[in-house]
Structures are given as structure tokens and as C-alpha cells.
Amino acid sequence: MASITSYQTAKGTRYMVGYRKPDGSHTTKRGFKRKLDARRWATEKESSKNHGEFIDESLSNVTVGERSGAWLSKKSMSLKPSTYRVVESTWRKHVEPIWACRSVGGIRRGEVQEWVTDMAASMSASVVIRAYGILAGILDDAVGDRMIARNPARGVELPRKRRRKHIYLTVSQLYNLSGACVNKPGRVTNLDREHAVLVILLGTVGLRWGEAIGLYIRNVDMKRHRISVEQSATQVGSAIEVGTPKAGKPRTVIFPAVLDGDFSKLMKGKRPDDLLFSSADGGHLKQVAPGRVDGWFGSACRRAGIPRMTIHDLRHTAASLMVHSGANVKAVQRQLGHASASMTLDVYADLFDDDLDAVGEAMNSILLRNELKMNSRKPASAA
Length: 383
Fold this sequence. Notes:
It is built from 14 helices and 8 strands. The protein has helices at about 35-50, 65-80, 80-100, 110-120, 125-145, 170-180, 190-205, 210-215, 260-265, 295-305, 315-325, 330-335, 340-345, 355-375, and strands spanning about 5-10, 10-20, 25-30, 220, 225-230, 230-235, 240-245, 250-255. It has a 3-stranded antiparallel beta sheet with strand order 1-2-3, with helices on one face. A 3-stranded antiparallel beta sheet has the order 4-5-8. It has a two-stranded antiparallel ribbon with strand order 6-7. Strand 6 (about 230-235) and strand 7 (about 240-245) form a beta hairpin. Helix 2 runs antiparallel to helix 3 (about 80-100).
């Protein structure tokens, strides 16, 4: 049981609670002005032990910085290297300078909200949400370790992400873009030809860049026009990390027969374990920087008269061509490797507007037919 004793300070009598932690060690809580307050606190502490809700207040002085190492180590096991690199960088730039020296027990929800609001004024919603998620995750672990009773970061209002409008190329634009990879000033290299094939592949099949450059010859079934997407090659700094596809699961996709000739040329003289697309030394192609306009993709876009876009936008073009060719949402989901059909509908809701028009026309047709039947059954009016 807890004990309550008094002691004298310069400001008068104060009370101290002595109690045992669940592990049997003895500790105290000082500073109560009234014995009644000390007794109430002691009762609550004993109750929390009985219900498995005990919070060791001495541990609440641990700082966010001291807790960050374990949290980041945990994330390094579950995240892909490229994603972890972004998370670690966000911690260093946006979270560590503000929160590293703060004790987990001394943080208040209002402070977190003010921090989020200040960041949202000058940063993208994605960056703000990622930084907030790091702090909230570290504090979640502190709750789990019974350092604090609740997470002060939870319940904070976050900025809303604004989805960038998708760019969809027509078939003619897609072929013009592919042709622009080889129709350029100077000597045309094998790499230029690979880029031309990549544009058609990405714009019709919908692979992600890392999935496409991570393909081996053995992944392509020329007879069945199937590609086994089993790995993804992601650039982390200057190195290429090969891991699983984004959704974490391999999938099989179909490719159009128009790529048969190009694939046959790429495969010529290669072994099953060679890359389908490769650099001059047989390694993986380097990542196309999203915002770069002076690289091979940006230059090809200018020559083809295509609006500024990223190579990932070709994935959107593939989704558009699938939908307009009559593919249902489940087929599009499987081809793109989305986690669910609802995700596909959410990302490409604008592509299914025609489906809504068709539903409206079909419903109108049913109602009109029913109205005609009803009118035909009405007795003729008396002369």
C-alpha cells in the first residue's frame, strides 16, 4: 500500500506519496499541497496497478530523441530502403530540431497542433503528414511502454492532400513520345532504343519504373504475352536496391502483342537471368528524377510536343487506355498492382465518368419502356 508523509519547504507543508511499482521497486511522488490530493493520487496509482494501466512517471522524462533510435530501427525493418531513406531524412529535417530534446511526458496536444499548422503554411501536405506521423509513432511507442497514459499527438487536425491532376496521353501521343526517344539530334544508341520500348511498355501495361527496370528475361512469357512482376529496382542514393513490388506481392500482367518485336530484339543474345532493360555494363538503368526536365525523358517530351510530365504519368496513360478499351475495374486493379479495386476507383474516378453516363442512359431507357407499357394499358377515353 502507498504511504503519505509530510515534509517542510520554504513555502509551507507539502506531502509525499511513497509507493511500489509493479516490479516491486519503491519510489515517491512529491509536491502535494494537501494531504487529500496526495491520498487521491495514491488511490488512483494503486488502481492503475490493479488494472494493468500503471504509468511510470519517472520514465516520462525520457526524450523524443532518446526514443527515436528504436522507432527508426523498427521502421528500417518494415519499410523499403527508398521509403526509409525519406522517413529518416524527414526526421532529421523537420522533427528532430523541434522535438528531440522534449520529454515524452511534457508534450501537449496544442503544441503539436501549432507545429503542424506552422509547417502546413510553407510545406506540402505530404511532408507535413509524414513528419507528424514520425512524432506520433514515437509517442505511440511511449504509450505502449507505459511511459505516458495517452498520445498527445493523436486528434490533431492535419492538412488535406491535394491530388495532382492526372495527365493522360492518347495513343498517337504515346507513339510520338516513343519515337522522340530515337528521333533526336546526334547518334542513336542502344539505350535510346531501350527508352523507346520502355515508353510503350509503361504507357500500355502500367508498370512502375522500378518494376520495369527490374525485369529479367525469365519474367517475360512471349507465348502467353505475360510478364511476372516479381521484383522492383529502386535507386537509393547512387545505389540500386532490389526488393519486392510496391504492394509487397508479385503479380502477373499482360502486355500487348505490338511489343513482341521490340522484346525479341532486347532478348537477343541474353540469358534468362539477364535484365530485359540494362545499362551498357549490364546493370540496372538509373532512376528518372521526377522533376528533371533536361534528362532523356524530358527531352523526348519536348521533341514530341507533349506537356511537361513525369515518367510515372505513363502509368496513368496505361490506366486510361485499359478503361477505354473496356477493361473492368478489377482487371485494371490487378494490372496496376493496386491493393484493392476501391483504391483503383479512388485514384482513377475520373476515368469511370463514362460508366456513370451509361448507367444514366440505361436507367432512362428502362423508365421510358415502363412508361410506354403503362400508357398502353390505360383504357381509351370516352368519346
